[in-house]
Design a protein that fits this description.
Layout (H helix, E strand, L loop, with lengths): L4 H6 L10 E8 L6 E2 L7 E3 L4 H10 L4 E7 L16 H12 L4 E6 L13 E2 L2 E2 L1 H18 L3 E4 L6 H11 L6 E8 L6 H6 L19 H14 L3 E5 L5 H10 L4 E5 L1 H12 L5 H15 L3 E4 L2 H9 L2
Parallel strand pairs: 1-3, 1-4, 1-12, 4-5, 5-8, 8-9, 9-10, 10-11, 11-12
Antiparallel strand pairs: 2-3, 6-7
Helix pairs in contact: 2-3, 3-4, 4-5, 7-8
The structure holds ligand PBG.
Amino acid sequence: MRRTESLRALVRETSVRASDLIYPIFVREGQTEPEPIASMPGQSRLPISSLAEEAKKIQDLGVGAVLIFGLPSHKDDQASSSSDPNGVVQNAIRTIKAATPDLVVMTDVCVCAYVPHGHCGVLKGHEVDNDASLFLLANMAVSHAAAGADVVAPSSMMDEQVLALRTALNANGFFNTAVMAYSAKFSSAFYGPFREAADSAPSFGDRASYQHDYANARHARRELIQDITEGADILMVKPGIAYLDIVLRAREISDLPIAAYAVSGEYSMIKAAAERGWLDEKKIVLETLTAFRRAGADLIITYHAKEAASWLNNN
Ligand code: PBG
């Protein structure tokens, strides 16, 4: 049954569609032109003024959703610009929804780009204050929902972040805003290029006291189950390609939709090797996307979403 491409196609178990892909975008306040991200060739920090056109392109390619990351012009210890109704993400959501009402809009909910110290929560001394941070994250999510986000995605890895968001969304009447939980987000060197892109590197220490230890699979299972009980609508595993065992575990634990995040470092590794002619970018991307789906992911968050969608559409 492997003899010809038609026979192989007949018995192929897994497929990837453009609509399975989620495209992360970086939006920067106070900017007029797209600003290329050096460590992520092909990706840029976008000004609000370019979003309508960009959203139409993404929609025309059939990409399933966008995931918005904001770079505010103002940072302070209480991350006050994160829940500003006229903040960068809130304005981005309204702009995209006006241009492409049917394009699914997801938002990252974390304060690291909104605080000068770059940690994912507010600090008490040199430690992150979990419960005080929940309050900020909940307000941020409610402001995204009010601006029109379809899905909010808490990524700060505070305990009970899903419950905090769900409770606050419901209390404010946003019953239909879904929560995509970063359930198994590991403390990873694969996030390096993102921190340049989002200007969110911690100014001291690291994120190991809140993100997961990459040596631990049983802990990931506990956190996945916890997020299901807290009301998650989508479970996410992150990073992607080195964590397919966790994707498989998530698939076995739950019938909820599962997303895998092919993070910045994975993108940059492929781009760098392809630029040198060492790897065939299109083949590598289609192979890794298929591997995510084979492991059990329904959705894949990838910076390759636009290119992959055009390759898939022209297959
Ligand atoms: C915010 C956040 C990060 C990523 C997604 N949300 C950075 C981090 O946790 O350090 C990483 C995404 C990527 O590397 O592509 N906390």
